[in-house]
């Protein structure tokens, strides 16, 4: 018997399910993953589903779940001639984004969750969750999804198993991860992270006729970092429900990374090739809805420069035997922000989402296609908004929810990198940090060292977006773009970053930069055109790495000289460029004061080396000895 069927057979024996279809030979095979079988049985016992379905990840399984959801009105099939094999899903109004205030890190000790995470006692939380999950799948199917984060078999990859009662989650997970029977085979000799999810509705006795079941009263996204478990209840949306993504690949994996000496980061990974055919890879961390997906798929406006996509949201990075830092994208799909995506801003994304895509909370046109703000100048007549209402009746409302998303396979992207499936990962030459900042932060700055670059990471702040529930536009600190995603004390996380200087020859480590596409002029408009034009900044970074581009040494780091940026064919006036590259001493001194205030929350866990960096930055600002320097 094939190992996959062996595992299934034993799982099913254990669950007391009729195994005849799977086995017609001797059942005398050694039992392989006891923990998985025991966990499935335990969850079945707790949640009391009517059926258990072990997902094989096949096309047939995906198609039949989609069909089932069409019947339940959870999915609308889009016009097959315009968007083949695509579906629209509409969430309920109270379940549209990540819920940071309902996200918990339940470490044994509160101090290990740190000042930036919600903490609850793990024993109390577990018992509370058990009550919520008790019988919560009655009348419905419990799906078991084995998935691999990273190419199957990669030394950096990890296995997880998500149990869920949501077919929307199953289909999305098939796009977002490598999922199904190949992973079940891997599980014969590997451990896994158990991820338990329920939409928490309809509960037994409830008559809930809704296309998007979720629990109004109770929503919990809970992590047990020591035992590496995830429990999520009540929400069906994005990072709250696709537990492989933020819960596992960032919160749990960041903790694994600290224990094992690697990094799990909220970063895109891109390949960049110059006209001479030389290639490098960059990773970049920007907070949610601040431009990772767009940068990772960028179509450069500079002739001969080519960007290729490895990942758009998460990077796992490890130092290999050669002492250098390599990254894999643990995901297989993109869960990207729809609004703002168009054939002008992101033609590669528009091509990718042409087929095999699940859209959530976008508008629906009369022709059965999707629409969102920014896709074209005006909404087509007769377009329904994300709640399925006629747009003409509520013209002041948005057609797409600002956090509307597409889930789409990376392999469909026209600019996917040749190393996307490489289990060894790609060598990272530069790390970029960035955020949405209307002022103060220049277009691009290069750090002086790894330690100074780590300091850059701690200083990331950004105007809040619709990716998480809460007010939009308010400036908040978001160190390393990991504020909602670091699974342990963030002060310890800073130290972990610093430790990389000791783990290898620092000259092997990537150079660190800070970028900001979002400065605004007095008219409130963006000073920098962004999107495809960001390739010009990537070019400057590429050439800095090769010692070719000029920079000015300023108190905050190396900033491009006015002539060193390639602005060929870009109608950008001199004042705008000046503003984009300016280091405003007064504003920076205020920034320093704000950082001093903020860093206090980390108390004694804030590394001395980073306090030193802040102190030195302040001194340099007071002295303000900007000087032009030649390439290194
Ligand atoms: P998450 O998936 O939430 O982590 O977001 P992300 O960081 O991948 O952001 P994404 O690339 O999806 O961009 C979010 C929004 O910012 C979209 O509406 C984009 O159109 C817009 N955006 C992206 N890049 C730029 C840029 O260079 N300039 C401007 N002005 N807007 C941008
Ligand atoms: C983010 O918020 O950073 C996302 C979307 O990438 S979600 O998967 O919902 O977390
Ligand atoms: Mn993200």
Description of the molecule:
The structure is a single chain. The protein is 27% helix and 20% strand. By secondary structure, it is α+β, with helices and mostly antiparallel strands. It folds into 3 domains: 205 residues, Phosphoenolpyruvate Carboxykinase, domain 1; 279 residues, Alpha-Beta Complex (Phosphoenolpyruvate Carboxykinase, domain 3), CATH 3.90.228.20; 79 residues, Phosphoenolpyruvate Carboxykinase, domain 2 (Beta Complex). The strands form 6 sheets. Strands 11, 12, 13, 14, 15, 16, 22, 23 and 26 form a 9-stranded mixed beta sheet that branches. Guanosine-5'-triphosphate binds next to helix 9 and strand 17. The site of manganese (II) ion (MN) has 3 residues, from loops.
Mean pLDDT: 93
- Strand fraction equals 15-25%
Shape: globular
The name of the CATH topology of the largest domain is Phosphoenolpyruvate Carboxykinase, domain 3
Distance between the termini: 62 Å
Whole-number count of domains: 3
Bound ligands, named by name, code or SMILES? guanosine-5'-triphosphate, sulfopyruvate, manganese (II) ion
Q: What class would the helix/strand composition place it in? A: alpha+beta
- Report the top-level CATH class of the largest domain: Alpha Beta
CA-based gyration radius: 25 Å
Largest sheet: 9 strands, mixed
Percent range of helical residues = 25-40%
E-strand count: 29
Number of helices: 17
**Uncertain stretches of 5 or more adjacent residues:** 13-31
CATH architecture heading of the largest domain: Alpha-Beta Complex
């Amino acid at each position: 018997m094939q190992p996959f069927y062996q595992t299934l057979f034993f799982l099913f024996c254990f669950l007391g399910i009729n195994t005849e279809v799977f086995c017609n030979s001797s059942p005398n095979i050694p039992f392989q993953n006891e923990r998985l079988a025991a966990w499935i049985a335990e969850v079945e016992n707790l949640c009391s589903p009517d059926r258990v379905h072990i997902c094989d990840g096949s096309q047939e399984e995906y198609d039949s779940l989609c069909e089932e959801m069409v019947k339940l009105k959870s999915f609308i099939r889009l016009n097959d001639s315009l968007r083949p094999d695509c579906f629209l899903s509409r969430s309920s109004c109270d379940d549209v984004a990540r819920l940071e205030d309902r996200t918990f890190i339940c470490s044994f000790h509160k101090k290990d969750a740190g000042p930036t995470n919600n903490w609850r006692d793990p024993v109390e939380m577990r018992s509370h969750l058990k009550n919520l999950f008790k019988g919560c799948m009655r009348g419905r199917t419990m799906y078991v999804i084995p998935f691999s984060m990273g190419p199957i078999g990669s030394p950096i990859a990890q296995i997880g198993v998500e149990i869920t009662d949501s077919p929307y989650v199953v289909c999305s997970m098939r796009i977002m991860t490598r999922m199904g029977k190949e992973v079940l085979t891997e599980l014969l000799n590997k451990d896994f992270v158990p991820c338990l999810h329920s939409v928490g509705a309809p509960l037994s006795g409830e008559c809930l006729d809704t296309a998007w079941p979720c629990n109004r009263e109770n929503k919990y996204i809970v992590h047990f970092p020591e035992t590496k478990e995830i429990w999520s209840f009540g929400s069906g949306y994005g990072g709250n429900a696709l537990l492989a993504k933020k819960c596992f690949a960032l919160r749990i994996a960041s903790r694994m990374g600290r224990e094992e000496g690697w990094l799990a980061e909220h970063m895109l990974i891109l390949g960049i090739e110059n006209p001479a055919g030389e290639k490098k890879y960059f990773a970049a961390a920007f907070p949610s809805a601040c431009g990772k997906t767009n940068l990772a798929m960028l179509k450069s406006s500079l002739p001969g420069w080519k960007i290729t996509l490895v990942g758009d949201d998460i990077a796992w990075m490890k130092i290999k035997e050669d002492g250098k830092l390599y990254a894999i994208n643990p995901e297989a799909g993109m869960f990207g922000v729809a609004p703002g995506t168009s054939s002008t801003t992101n033609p590669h994304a528009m091509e990718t989402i042409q087929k095999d895509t699940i859209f959530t909370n976008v508008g629906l046109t009369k022709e059965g296609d999707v629409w969102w703000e920014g896709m074209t100048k005006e909404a087509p007549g007769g377009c329904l908004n994300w709640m399925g209402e006629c747009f003409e009746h509520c013209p002041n409302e948005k057609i797409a929810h600002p956090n509307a998303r597409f889930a789409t396979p990376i392999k469909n992207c026209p600019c996917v990198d040749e190393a996307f499936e490489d289990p060894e990962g790609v060598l990272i030459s530069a790390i970029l940090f960035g955020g949405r900042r209307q002022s103060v932060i220049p277009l691009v700055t290069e750090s002086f060292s790894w330690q100074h670059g780590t300091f850059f990471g701690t200083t990331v702040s950004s105007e809040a977006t619709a990716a998480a529930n809460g007010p939009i536009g308010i400036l908040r600190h978001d160190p390393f773009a990991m504020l909602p995603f670091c699974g342990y004390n963030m002060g310890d996380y800073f130290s972990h970053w610093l430790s990389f200087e000791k783990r290898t020859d620092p000259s092997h480590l990537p150079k660190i930069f800070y970028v900001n596409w979002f400065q605004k002029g007095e008219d409130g408009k963006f000073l920098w055109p962004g999107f495809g034009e960001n390739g010009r900044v990537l070019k400057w970074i590429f050439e800095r790495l090769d010692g070719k581009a000029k920079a000015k040494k300023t108190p905050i780091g190396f900033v491009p000289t006015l002539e060193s940026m390639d602005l060929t064919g870009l109608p950008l006036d001199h004042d705008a460029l000046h503003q984009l590259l300016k280091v405003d001493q007064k504003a920076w001194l205020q920034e320093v004061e704000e950082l001093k205030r903020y860093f206090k929350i980390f108390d004694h866990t804030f590394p001395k080396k980073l306090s030193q960096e802040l102190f030195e930055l302040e001194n340099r600002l007071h002295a303000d000895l900007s000087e032009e320097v030649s390439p290194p």
